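Annual report, structural modelling task.

Input specification for the magnesium ion complex:
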Amino acid sequence: MSQSPLVRVEGMTLQYKTPDHLVTATYRVSFDIHQGERVVLLGPSGCGKSTILKAVAGFMPPVEGRITLKDRVITSPGPDRMMVFQEFDQLLPWKTVRANVAYPMLVNGVSREEADSRACDALAKVNLSKFIDVYPHMLSGGMKQRVAIARAMAMRPDVLLMDEPYAALDALTRRKMQEELLQLWDDVGFTLIFVTHSIEEAIVVGSRVVVLSPHPGQVRAELNCDHLGFAERESAEFGRLAGRISSMLFDDHEVAH
Ligand SMILES: Nc1ncnc2c1ncn2[C@@H]1O[C@H](COP(=O)(O)OP(=O)(O)OP(=O)(O)O)[C@@H](O)[C@H]1O
Ligand SMILES: [Mg+2]
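The model returned the following structure:
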């Protein structure tokens, strides 16, 4: 029996107004996200992936359609949706790792003791217990991303939003971070919307991939890949799915279904 979706994006058109023209970033995009799913938004540069995340985060209202979280229309940002960005400089440089993770909780009314304890737990989950009292400039890019993930998770959001969080990392660190994220998901069971350009990353990280068409973004296909992870990367099925997605992204005539 399937419960109603946690997040529902319905016929969503998103636009930017610039001084001289209107940019349509996405056109009538619809998809659902159920509790505990890992949904990946995959599409070419400029198709509106980051814009969709901004709208789910509540930074940008749709000009058409709507987004609901637990059946309530999203109209503003909230601590129930936490975002992790691509950039390594998301942390406050004058605060320690522990204080960076605790900060959003303190701002949202969590007591100092509770915030500190949740910060330490979250940092342990991303294997940074030894670094809680150092400052961000002493961390590598991958470690800073782990702190950003811990900071988001410590807020216990309904949805974790990640915009190409590993794009600026080297291949080995990227793979390690993907494995850690999946391990964290196994441990905690959160709901994830993850944006990437990489077909392989999409299949490995996602339980479902939403493939978007080029600008303005429209949903081309939704593909289930829950059963495909690192262990299946060399399998024929993984290869077939990757090939199918690749032809959707690079061949405008591929028909979605
Ligand atoms: N602040 C802005 N003002 C005007 N247009 C914008 C703005 N931000 C994005 N756009 C336009 O909206 C469209 C979608 O942009 P968006 O950043 O969402 O794409 P994306 O899929 O995340 O691309 P990338 O993979 O390169 O990050 C693009 O055409 C972009 O030029
Ligand atoms: Mg983007």
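The longest helix spans residues 171-188.
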